[in-house]
Amino acid sequence: MKKRSAAVGAVVAGLLAPLALTTPAHADASYKAFCNTTGGHGGVTAPSYTGATDSVYVQMGVYDGSADGHPMRIRLVTEDANGKNTYWPWHTNTKGSGKSLEFATTATNKSGIFAIGIQVARFDGNKKLNSCSKWGSYY
Questions:
Q1: Which of 11-15, 60-64, 68-72, 100-104 bottoms out in mean pLDDT, i.e. has the lowest?
Q2: Contact predicate 60/86, CB 8 Å
Q3: pLDDT of 51-88, one tens digit each?
Q4: Which side of the chain, N or C, has fewer Cβ within a 10 Å radius?
Q5: Mean pLDDT score, 104-108
Q6: How many other β-carbons are positioned within 10 Å of the β-carbon of residue 115?
Q7: How far apart are CA 62 and CA 126, in angstroms?
Q8: Is 26 exposed, middle or buried (CB count within 10 Å of its CB: 0-12, 13-18, 19+)?
């Protein structure tokens, strides 16, 4: 996964807000996934994703909502043409309670990307305390 520097604060704030469901055929539809777990929440949006591809640009954000000293992490999950999941590296929000980590990146898989999802988790060191996972859909 290749990191891209981008200001995505407004985008992530919007992607974490409740959204009205629309159909994939809608001109403004975006592919998104969100989930909540104890201590925080996170989300991903793939603004130009329309289905099977070998490379996808995503914007991600993770929020730490608990002053417990345990950072929140987020990672992208993709499914290829063979139904195999790729679990991309974790991104850790070390900014503390009440803060978000926002970033944009591109995921590339020569076997194709047929589904996009996320995992969000709260950690104590390398020990996962709790987590959530969600596959995306069009909003």
A1: 11-15
A2: no
A3: 899 999 999 999 999 999 999 999 999 999 999 999 99
A4: N
A5: 97
A6: 18
A7: 18
A8: exposed
Q: CB within 8 A of 61, min separation 6: which ones?
A: 8, 12, 13, 15, 16, 42, 43, 74, 100, 101, 102, 103
Identify which of 113, 108, 110, 2 has the alpha carbon closest to the alpha carbon of residue 53.
113
pLDDT of residue 11: 36
Encoded tokens for 15: 């992607």
- Output the pTM of the full model: 0.80
CA distance 10 to 119: 21
Q: How far apart are CA 17 and CA 56, in angstroms?
A: 22
Pairing type for strands 40-46 and 31-37 reads antiparallel
Phi, psi dihedrals of residue 10, rounded to the nearest 5°: -65, -40
Total length of the chain? 139
Q: What angle do CA 21, 24, 30 make, to 5 degrees?
A: 70
